[in-house]
Protein: Salt-induced outer membrane protein YdiY
Amino acid sequence: MFRFLLSVVLCALLPSAWGDTVWLNNGDRLSGRIQLLDGGKLLIETAYAGSVTLDWKQVASLDSAQTLLIQRADGRRVQTRGLQRAAAGRVALHEVPARPLALREIRQILPPRPLVEDWIWSGRIDLALEYEKAAKDVEDFELDFKTSARHALWRHNLTGGFEREFKNGVKSADNVGGEYALDRFLDEHWFWQGKFEYQRDRVDALALQRTLGSGPGYQFWDDSLGAFSLATLLNRHDFAFAAGGKEHLYALGVKWDYNRHLFGKRVELFSHGELGAPFDHVIDYKLETALGLRYRLNSWAALQLKGEWDQLRSELGDVDEARYTFGVGVGW
Structure:
């Protein structure tokens, strides 16, 4: 009851940015901004309680002035300029208020993302610590970050990471790296990407790696539920070795970036990586990839379980490394 009274008072005080209203079967209502409906969970952002997740079966009706994409149970999609409250268990679309739609027929609701929009900045920082006391004492520290900023037809992507590991008090890993990629969208899906990547290792024989690449990409989707993109790049790799000497080679790479929110954004599945095939008969291919899950604790913090794999196939020998980390991260 207190929550209901609070929502009524704040509804009168809040600006139109929080103008969506959700009525529940028990008579309560919440005011805020509808973020998405997926997997039977409705996510609404409020000014007084942050993000609130509701069971779709407990929703009686809705009202919104947002433009929304609605997917029906039969798979059809419709875009509406708003929703209007109707009888319990139904909602009316702005275009056809006389023909309310049953809530049970709605599977998904998403606010659309226009191709040209003002600055949008998102990102996250993940931290993982590991300590293992066995035949070898292992202490490992890993920090990763990823951020993206989009303005009009341009998207800036910046990723980076740092790792330091000790085994029995001896440093076994000490590396830092980062990548900057700039995307120029040609239409809603196609874009052209240019990237620069830098990796510095203070332990391994390969001390320095620099990569310049450019090529076309395709954005399959990018909405409130996640995103998926592929890019095909022509890369030039420059290497410097700790013992002295330098090498370079050219390669064709396929790069992907995928994430998908599930259960009302409570869980996130993600994967990113790059598969490269050098124009060199000595090396067959090189694969760097990561796959993981995040469990959201609140609107900004999440637990993360991640696996990373590095593979190299060549005439001089193969590399097949895997590592698994568990940590916590913050996102915005």
The radius of gyration is 24 Å.
